[in-house]
Design a protein that fits this description.
This protein is an alpha+beta fold. The protein contains 8 helices and 20 strands.
Length: about 350
């Protein structure tokens, strides 16, 4: 059986009494785009820097194609790196910046010239080779940094929050370019971000970091539809949480009771509780809203606000027990017509689309 291309095994990093990373273990496939997603201080960048060789783990190992990297200094790991700040040499031209890692590796002039042209085509900056970084926009500079990191054909490319300094429109443009370049080159990419939308847009899989550990790894749809922890449910996408009573739990499914006596069965449950208080998680777009109580409608609520957001409408509601629920409906939905603040509505949902955390 073939080993995974890149393996991280039991990585732990301590800074005195502080444990920044605790027992991070994962396998990365060749050519995969894997994103480390999490808030500041969750351990994602620390893990990336250990991979790059900028820091040493307190425990654990990292292997690339079956060979450990820990004894190899960062400049000999042959791993590409793109940072938030472009780190271009300001006194060198674009072409000279891209050529730099090739010159360090003592490539011939013909090889360097050919590779620089290839990289400029890849990042769509043909004709910019004689410009200095200061003459270029932030997005163009980040493309040059990406071209330089790829120029020597590294087996792995590490990217640490590379787009966080760009405005939203430019960030989305460069995200599209990064995705295209990944598909074209098939380089293995490990990408760090705190932006869930960016992670969902770019990644084959996402590792969600929290407090130095990986809470869950999966594709975007897997994490969104089947979060295993409350943290993942809150961090990936929009979510509503309301209190409920856990009536019973068996085989990974729960029966719950909501305020007003509504009972729901066969809801996926996470945690070790079998009874008592719990939290019901609902996605706003999976909640059904009706003006008149229909058979099976589970919750009465009062409309507290209505927000128009282009192709969808957010309806903020409050249940009889004072808990807030946000409902997202497509523009033009029949329930929106004539709806006003203070109106009583009825909310319902499919049990399989909800989750209980206890």
């Amino acid at each position: 059986m073939n080993e995974p291309f890149l393996q991280i095994r039991g990585i732990r990093k301590e800074y005195g009494p502080v444990v920044a990373v605790h027992d991070v273990t994962l396998d990365v496939r060749r050519g995969e785009f894997l994103t480390f997603l999490g808030p500041s201080g969750s351990g994602k960048s620390t893990t990336l820097y250990i991979l790059a060789g900028f820091d040493n783990p307190t425990k654990g190992d990292i292997t690339l194609e079956g060979k450990t990297l820990l004894a190899t200094p960062s400049h000999k790991r042959n791993i590409g790196m793109v940072f938030q700040r472009y780190t271009l040499f300001p006194h060198l031209t674009v072409g000279e910046n891209i050529a730099f890692p090739l010159k360090v590796r003592r490539k011939s002039k013909a090889e360097i010239d050919s590779k620089v042209k290839e990289m400029l085509r890849l990042v769509r900056l043909e004709g910019f080779e004689d410009r200095k970084p200061a003459q270029m926009s932030g997005g163009q500079q980040q493309r040059v940094a990406l071209a330089r990191a790829l120029a020597y054909d590294p087996p792995v490319l590490l990217m640490d929050e590379p787009l966080s300094a760009l405005d939203k429109k430019l960030r989305e443009e460069i995200q599209h370019e990064i995705r295209r370049i990944h598909q074209q080159t098939e380089v293995t990419i490990l990408y760090v971000t705190h932006d869930q939308e960016e992670a969902l847009r770019l990644s084959d899989r996402i590792a969600v970091f929290s407090k130095g550990v990986i809470d869950q790894i999966g594709t975007g749809p897997e994490l969104y539809a089947n979060p295993k922890t409350r943290f993942v449910a809150e961090f990936i996408g929009d979510s509503d949480f309301i209190s409920c009573d856990l009536v019973s739990s068996s085989g990974g499914e729960a029966t719950i009771a909501l305020g007003g006596g509504a009972i729901f069965n066969q809801i996926p449950v996470h945690g070790k509780g079998s009874s008592g208080r719990a939290a019901l998680m609902l996605r706003p777009e999976r909640i059904r809203l009706s003006r008149a109580r229909a058979a099976g409608a589970g919750l009465a609520a009062t409309v507290s606000d209505i927000t128009f957001l282009g192709n969808n409408i957010h309806v903020s509601t409050e249940t009889a027990t004072g808990e807030a629920l946000s409902v997202r409906l497509p523009f033009g939905h029949e329930a929106i017509a004539g709806l006003n603040r203070g109106d009583i509505v009825h909310l319902d949902f499919d049990p399989g689309a909800a989750h209980v955390f206890c």
